[in-house]
Amino acid sequence: MSIELNGVTKRYGAEKALNDVTFHFKPGKIYGLLGPNGSGKSTTLKLITGLVYPNSGTVSVLKETVTRRISKNVAYLTELDMFYDSFTSGKMIDFYDTQFPDFDREKAFKLLQEMELSPDKKIKQLSKGNRGRLKLVLTLARDVPVVLLDEPFSGLDPMVRDSIVRSLLTNINFEKQTVIIATHEIDEIEPIMDEVIAIYNGDIIGHENVEVLREEQGLSVLEWFKLTMVNQGKAV
Ligand SMILES: Nc1ncnc2c1ncn2[C@@H]1O[C@H](COP(=O)(O)OP(=O)(O)OP(=O)(O)O)[C@@H](O)[C@H]1O
């Protein structure tokens, strides 16, 4: 197993964000972590990257309990923009290169070209879609076993979404990387997911292999997700 959550509860003050969750992620798979706003998706990713700690239970990546240090094995695309506006895309790549020993500078410039981004353009001049693309370039250029993407499509138009999905497929190393995509935009990642997890109110309420869903149950991921939510008494 590449990532293990065992009996993990996470509270923010009185607010319970995750509720005694046990889940093991296998290597070489793309997981879709699906749920409505506030269901605990971001919290799950933050626990895996060591940005927040569980109140109880344990989180481990490659058998090592997660501490802040573990982020060396995890590339994390956040919802928030954490860019230096006055940097150019090229300078941002150089900066990442100094921050992460596993960063592949050559791959980053190749990805930049693939996404039709200029290395000389300042980040503050980029459209929202191009900032989204740059975030993905910086995340995918890291050679790490775990890649976490938090709402990679948020606010992007369909063409940008397509290009992101395509570059995900061509730039993930399926031999050794585990990818978790947290999103409530299920349609976008339907074609690329191997496994789906439904999360609601801090509980994992369903988990399926996508091929089994399609072939044995004749369901799309979206149909399965809606059914799973309805079974929980939650209309969608
Ligand atoms: N820093 C925080 N302080 C207090 N409560 C928080 C904090 N972060 C998250 N929460 C709460 O924890 C719960 C889970 O939030 P989380 O961000 O993990 O959900 P999410 O599924 O990623 O939602 P979204 O799709 O809106 O980002 C929510 O009820 C949220 O309000």
Describe the model.
This protein is of the alpha/beta class and 236 residues long. It has one domain: P-loop containing nucleotide triphosphate hydrolases (Rossmann fold). It has helices at residues 41-49, 89-99, 105-114, 128-140, 158-171, 186-189, 210-217, 221-231; strands at 3-12, 15-25, 30-34, 56-61, 64-65, 74-77, 146-150, 178-183, 195-200, 203-209. The strands form two sheets. It has a six-stranded mixed sheet, with helices on both faces. It has a four-stranded antiparallel sheet with strand order 2-1-4-5, covered by helices on one side. Helix 5 links the parallel strand 7 (146-150) and strand 8. The longest helix is centred in the C-terminal third of the chain and has 14 residues, at 158-171. It binds adenosine-5'-triphosphate (ATP). Adenosine-5'-triphosphate binds next to strand 2 and helix 1. Keywords: ATP-binding, Nucleotide-binding. InterPro entries: AAA+_ATPase, ABC_transporter-like_ATP-bd, P-loop_NTPase. Residues 3-226 form the ABC transporter domain.
Structure characteristics:
six-stranded mixed β-sheet, alpha/beta, 236 residues, single chain, four-stranded antiparallel β-sheet, Rossmann fold
Quick summary of this structure?
Helix content is 34%, strand content 26%.
Give the SSE map:
Blueprint: E1 3-12, E2 15-25, E3 30-34, H1 41-49, E4 56-61, E5 64-65, E6 74-77, H2 89-99, H3 105-114, H4 128-140, E7 146-150, H5 158-171, E8 178-183, H6 186-189, E9 195-200, E10 203-209, H7 210-217, H8 221-231
Parallel strand pairs: 3-8, 3-9, 6-7, 7-8
Antiparallel strand pairs: 1-2, 1-4, 4-5, 9-10
Bound molecules: adenosine-5'-triphosphate (ATP).
